[in-house]
Design a protein that fits this description.
This protein has about 280 residues and is mostly helical. The protein folds into two domains: about 5-140, no CATH class; about 160-275, no CATH class. The protein is built from twelve helices and no strands. Helix 7 (about 160-165) packs parallel to helix 9 (about 205-215) and helix 8 (about 190-200) packs across helix 11 (about 230-245). The longest helix is centred in the middle third of the chain and has 35 residues, at about 125-160.
Length: about 280
């Protein structure tokens, strides 16, 4: 058995509760409560919920599901619609404050969370909450991508090794916060802005930028995920060609031409082939 899953199941089991067991977990095992204890624990969880003491999205789903079941059974004095409206506001507050978890996914609500099945999975109201969580996570992802795209451009100007690490799986710099190996970060960057920054780079870094770009799509499995960045690459190629069309003897212009010839052309051709499959 998976050791982590086993330990999680034991900790959350009704047979291993103690004074450190969270109130929401005691409430999940409501069938072991007497009438008085049930009401006490329910009131405590509701108070913690109102005071926004929970940030774990899976736990919030557990609590919401319990509230829905108790409302249906006339054990909780709020309607199911009021419960869902409040839970959506809760999720929105987490998103707006930047505390919404983007790693958690509720794609399969029947698998539960923390070794416990969700209550009320067959309620339409519960599915509405799950849909709202997904939309909220997508909004936050979009916001983060736009912000981090700007950060990526700043990093490209100051630390090419870190730039490589952020966009390529082969990178080893170790910035865990900014890793876009499989996310289309370039789709959130204006091609003209990208090229203007490239033109300001020291000559020694020009080829490194475009070699990193080629490395980004080296694996076919990754290239398939990132194929939507093809338009961005075509745009920066067009801008590069405009820059190198000038007749001059500058080394920087030659390096731009070389960047396109050695790295960008081959990358674009490869992605076009993948897109046309």
């Amino acid at each position: 058995m998976d050791k982590v899953v086993l330990e999680e199941s034991i900790i959350n089991s009704k047979y291993f509760q103690d004074e450190t067991t969270p109130n929401w977990l005691r409430l999940w095992h409501y069938d072991r409560c007497n009438d008085q204890d049930f009401q006490i624990i329910l009131d405590k969880v509701e108070s913690e919920y109102i005071n926004r003491e929970f940030e774990d999205i899976g736990v919030i789903q557990h609590i919401t599901g319990l509230f829905l079941v108790f409302s249906d059974a006339k054990l909780y004095n709020k309607s199911k619609q009021d419960i869902i409206n409040e839970s959506k506001i809760y999720i929105d507050e987490l998103r707006e404050s930047g505390r919404l978890d983007l790693k958690y996914t509720s794609d399969n609500i029947f698998s539960g969370y923390m070794g416990l099945g969700f209550q009320a999975v067959d309620y339409q109201e519960f599915q509405d909450l799950v849909d709202h969580i997904k939309v909220s996570q997508e909004k936050l992802t979009l916001q983060n991508m736009s912000d981090n795209a700007k950060r990526l451009l700043d990093i490209m100007q100051t630390n090419i090794s870190e730039f490589h690490s952020i966009i390529c799986e082969s990178g080893s710099y170790g910035n865990l916060e900014l890793q876009y190996h499989h996310s289309p970060i370039f789709s959130y960057i204006l091609p003209d802005e990208f090229i203007q920054i490239v033109l300001k780079l020291p000559n020694e870094n020009i080829l490194r930028v475009f070699s990193s770009i080629k490395e980004r799509y080296k694996l076919s499995s990754t290239a398939k995920i990132l194929v939507n960045e093809l338009d961005f690459l075509k745009d920066i190629q067009r801008l590069l060609l405009l820059e190198t069309s000038e007749i001059d003897r500058k080394l920087s212009r030659h390096l731009l031409w070389l960047s396109n010839k050695q790295y960008l052309e081959k990358t674009i051709t490869n992605l076009e082939n993948i897109k046309n499959i």
